[in-house]
Design a protein that fits this description.
Layout: E1 5-7, E2 12-16, H1 20-33, H2 45-51, E3 63-72, E4 75-85, H3 86-92, E5 96-104, H4 108-124, E6 129-131, H5 162-165, H6 182-185, E7 201-203
Parallel strand pairs: 5-6
Antiparallel strand pairs: 1-2, 2-3, 3-4, 4-5, 6-7
Length: 213
């Protein structure tokens, strides 16, 4: 598994999803992460299985993808998806990767380890920048929740904790190098078309693991 990573400091290992059993863990992890999150609304799991099924979702035919799980011992503590949408990149003459479906326990190091793994994967594929959270297209869940955390979700979108926003590197506005460009995410309302250039963008250098730990 070329994209497996280990972090000896926290006994953390990042591994690709390799079978249906691990895909099930990927799909149902948010249910554990948000078990005490009273405003979180579970997805329609039938739709989740269809979305991640290469035979049923045509986007897999023109996108490279990577599904990763973060393991600490026998426990799964995080997940992320990496996407390279070749159809979009060819149209825009870009080399842009995306990350999506990021979920973890409340631990900054796990967030960074997952993002770094996707960055390395994207860099190996010749990508020069990464943007997210952003799925195959703007019809998928996208963006972080940055306000209104007290309200229950009413549309199909991410329902993250406030701490998650502060753990994303490369965005202005926070007290550390891990913060969110809230202004760039505010325009992501229902019924609006979104341009990828409005998203927090991280440029990928030539070295491994562009995220500071």
């Amino acid at each position: 598994m070329p994209f497996a990573r280990a972090d000896a400091k926290v006994d953390l290992e990042i591994r690709p999803v390799a079978n249906r059993s691990e895909l099930k863990k990927f799909i149902y992890l948010p249910e554990k992460v948000h078990s005490n999150h009273h405003t979180w609304v579970p997805p329609l799991y039938v739709s989740e299985w269809q979305y991640f099924d290469r035979r049923k979702n045509p986007a897999f035919s023109y996108c490279d993808t990577l599904l990763l799980l973060a393991h600490r011992g026998k426990e799964v503590v995080g997940r992320i998806m990496g996407i390279v949408n070749h159809r979009y990149n060819d149209l825009r003459e870009e080399r842009t990767a995306r990350y999506a479906y990021l979920e973890t326990r409340e631990e900054e190091r796990t967030v960074h380890a997952l993002l770094a793994a996707v960055e390395d994967w994207a860099r190996e594929k010749g990508m020069t920048r990464i943007v997210g959270p952003y799925g195959f297209s703007d019809q998928d869940p996208e963006g972080f929740l940055i306000e209104g955390f007290e309200h229950r979700a009413t549309i199909v979108t991410y329902c993250n904790f406030a701490w998650m926003v502060l753990c994303i590197p490369g965005n202005p506005g926070g007290g550390t190098d891990c913060s969110c460009a809230a202004g760039r995410c505010r325009g992501l309302g229902a019924g609006k078309r979104h341009d990828q250039d409005r998203w927090p963008i991280r440029f990928l250098g030539s070295g491994p693991g562009g995220i500071s730990h």
